[in-house]
Amino acid sequence: MNTLLRAVKIVDKHSPWNGQVRDVLLQGGRIVRIGEALDADGAEIREGKGWCVSPGWMDMRIASRDPGYEHEEDLDSVRRVAARGGFTEIMLLPNSKPVVDAKDTLNYVRQPRPGQPVRVHVAAAVTRKAEGVDFTEMIDLHHAGAVAFTDGEVPIQNADILLKALLYLRPLDSLLINRPEDRQLTLFGQMNEGITSTLLGLKGMPALGEEMMLSRDLKLLAYATEKVGPVNQGNDENSGRNALPQLHVSLVSTARAVSLIREAKAQGLPVSCDVAAHQLAYDDSALMNFDTNLKVNPPFRSPADIAALREGLADGTIDIFVSDHSPHAEENKNVEFDQADFGITALETAFSLALMHSGLTIEDIVEKITANPRRILRLPHVIISENQPANLTIFSPDEEWTFDKSLSKSRNSPFLGSKLPGRVIGVVNEDAQLWGT
Amino acid sequence: MAQLSVRHLLGIKNLNETDIHTILDTAAQFKEVINRPIKKVPSLRDITIANVFFENSTRTRLSFELAEKRLSADVVNFSASGSSVTKGETLLDTVNNILAMKVDMIVMRHSSPGAAHYLSTRIPANVVNAGDGTHEHPTQALLDAFSMREKLGDLRGKKIAIIGDILHSRVALSNIFCLQKLGAEVMVCGPTTLIPKYLPELGVKVGHDVKAALRWCDVANVLRIQLERQQIKYFPSLREYSLYFGIDKAMLDELDREIVLMHPGPINRGVELSSDAADSAHSIILNQVENGVAVRMAVLFLLAQQ
C-alpha cells in the first residue's frame, strides 16, 4: 500500500527536513520521497490541518500483564493501546507471571504480530522471579533478544546484586534499569510523605527513600566504571564496544534525585534516566479525596519536585519520557486506598501530558520519546529521510481531544473524561498502519 | 432546626465550626435525656442503622449501639470476624448486601484510612466514621471536646496537650482538627518517632518532655500506646516508654494548678497512665464514656435529618 502524507510538518531534529512542511511518500514500508506537491500517483492521501510527522514514538516502561494477568492487559490489547497513544515501539517490563527470567517466557512475549504497527521489545529480569536473590542467565537472555535487564516494578534492594549485574552486563553493552526505592524506608507507604499524608493518616513514602537508593546506585555505578591502573586500559576492547556499565534510572520523582543525576552526569558517569509523563500532572495534594487512580509509585510529590523535574527535562538531565503504563483490574483499584494497587493506564495520555505539563517544545518532547530511548537501549535509530524504513507517528499537537474511552482492558486512569491537548492521528511501522483510533 | 453542612460524618476535617457547635449543643440535650428515668426518645423510630465493624471495638460499638437504641432506631451489628470478609468479599459488596436489607445508615469502623470516605461516595446511605485506620475518629474528638467544654466552658484559648502515640492515632488527628476549629491551642507530646514530621505545618506545638507538657496544658489527653499497629519498630520497650513518657499521680500533684486528665480508652494501666493517675480526681475518663453516648445520639439524630 502506498501512502502520501500531504503537507505534514516534519518533527525530527536528526532529519534535514526538520521543521519543514513537506509531502512524504511511503512505498513498500519505506519513505521513498520527501518533497513539495508530490504526485500521489495512486497512493492513498492522508492530510489534515496542523498535522506533524515524527519518527515513531518509543515507550520503554510498560508493565507486562501477559502471561498471568491477561484480564488486565494482553499482548494484543497493549499494542492497540500503544498505537492509540502514538507509539510504534514499546518495551515491556519482566513482571508478568511467570516473570520473564528465562528464554521460554521471553520468546512468548517477544512473538511478533505481523500486520500490527507496534513492535514489542522485552526487558528481562536481573534476578529469578524478580525476587532479588539469584541471577537470571543474563548472557543467554541477551542473545535471545532481551534489550535490557531490570527487575522492573521491583526495585533491586541488595547492593551487591546491583553491582554484580552492572559488571556482568558490561561486556554485553546491555542496559541495567532500576527504579530507586529503599523499601525499608517506604514500608507500608501509600503516598508521598508530607502534610497531605499526615492529614489523611496514610503512611508516607519519603523522598528520602528514592534519594538514598539513587545515591547508592550511583556510587555502585562509579565503582563499576572505575578503571584501575594503565595496564587495564582497553582490556575490554575486544568486545568491540565502549564496555562501560550502563545504568538507567527509571521514574525519577524528586528534586534531589534530579540533582544527583545531574551531578553524576557532570562527572561523566554512564547514567541516564526517565520520568513518567503523569508525574508532572499532579502533586500529592490531589489525593485529598483518596482517589485510588492517583495512587502511583513513585508517588505524586510536591510542587517543588515537579518544578525540579521540569528543569531536569529542560537541561537534558532527564533523557526520556515514559508512560509507566500499569493496568489494573477494577477489583484492585475500586477498593480502600491502602488495599489498592499502584499505577495508572497511561499509554494513551503520555504524550498529551508531556505536552501539557513539561514546558518543553514539541521537538524536545519528541526527542525524549524517539531518539533518546532508542539510543539508550541501543536500538536502531529512526530518522525521517528518503530511503529509510517508515517508522512514523502522525499527530496534531494543536488539536484537543477527549479521553472518553480507553482501548486498554483496564480503566485505572484519572484522566478518563478529560480534554487533553495533542491528538494522535495515526502510526506507521513499515507495512503496518493504524489511523484514526 | 439546626442542620449540619454534611450528609456523612467522615471526619472532623469535613466539618465547620458551626457544625461542631451544633453537634455539641444537641448532645447536651441528649445528655439530659439519658439521665432521665426513661432514657429513650422516639426520634429515629423509622430508621435502621447497621454498625459495621471491620476492626475490634468494645467501647465505641457499645456506645453507638446504645445511642441508636435510645433514639429508638432499629439496630443490626456486623463484625468482620466470622463474616464473608474472611472469604474475600470486598467492602463495597459487604455493605451493599447490608443495604439491600433496607438499612438507612452505616456506622463503620475499618482499618484503612479513607474507608468511610470511599464508602460515602459509592452508597446512598449516610455514613458515620467510627474510626478509619490512622486517619480520623470524629465522634471520639467530638465527645472529647464535649467533655472539655463541660469541664472548662468555652475552649477558645485553652491549652490541650495530646500525649502518646500521635503517629498511629486517629484520635490525635481528629482531636487536633476539632480543637483548632474551636479555638484551642494544641500541643502533641511523645517520642520523636511517634510524632509525624509534618505536624507542625498544622500549627501544632510539638514537645518531647511530658512534665513540660503537663505544666503547659489545661487538659492532658493521653493516648493509648498501640503496639498492635506497630509492625515497624518505633521505640524500644513498654518499660522505657512508661518510665519516660508515662504519667503518674505524683506528676499531677507536682503541678501548681489542677489540670484535666483524659484518655480515649482502653487504658494500658502502668504504661501510659498509672492506676493512681487514671483513678484520680483529675481524671474525667468515665465522663468521656458517658458523654460518648450523648454525642453519638446527636450525630445520628442530625444526620438523619439530612
TrEMBL record, chain A:
Keywords: Pyrimidine biosynthesis. GO terms for molecular function: allantoinase activity; dihydroorotase activity; metal ion binding. It comes from the Bacteria. GO terms for biological process: purine nucleobase catabolic process; pyrimidine nucleotide biosynthetic process. InterPro entries: Amidohydro-rel, DHOase, DHOase/Allantoinase_Hydrolase, DHOase_cat, Metal-dep_hydrolase_composite, Metal_Hydrolase. This is Dihydroorotase. NCBIfam families: pyrC_multi (TIGR00857). Transmembrane segments: none annotated. Residues 53-219 form the Dihydroorotase catalytic domain. One of its GO terms (cellular component) is cytoplasm. Residues 295-428 form the Amidohydrolase-related domain.
UniProtKB/TrEMBL annotation, chain B:
Residues 7-150 form the Aspartate/ornithine carbamoyltransferase carbamoyl-P binding domain. Pfam families: OTCace, OTCace_N. Keywords: Pyrimidine biosynthesis, Transferase. It catalyses: carbamoyl phosphate + L-aspartate = N-carbamoyl-L-aspartate + phosphate + H(+). One of its GO terms (biological process) is amino acid metabolic process. L-aspartate binds at K87, R170, R224. Pathway: Pyrimidine metabolism; UMP biosynthesis via de novo pathway; (S)-dihydroorotate from bicarbonate: step 2/3. Carbamoyl phosphate binds at R59, T60, R109, H137, Q140, G265, P266. It comes from the Bacteria. Its EC number is 2.1.3.2. Residues 157-302 form the Aspartate/ornithine carbamoyltransferase Asp/Orn-binding domain. One of its GO terms (molecular function) is amino acid binding. Heterododecamer (2C3:3R2) of six catalytic PyrB chains organized as two trimers (C3), and six regulatory PyrI chains organized as three dimers (R2). Belongs to the aspartate/ornithine carbamoyltransferase superfamily. ATCase family. HAMAP family: Asp_carb_tr (MF_00001). Catalyzes the condensation of carbamoyl phosphate and aspartate to form carbamoyl aspartate and inorganic phosphate, the committed step in the de novo pyrimidine nucleotide biosynthesis pathway. This is Aspartate carbamoyltransferase. It comes from Persicitalea jodogahamensis.
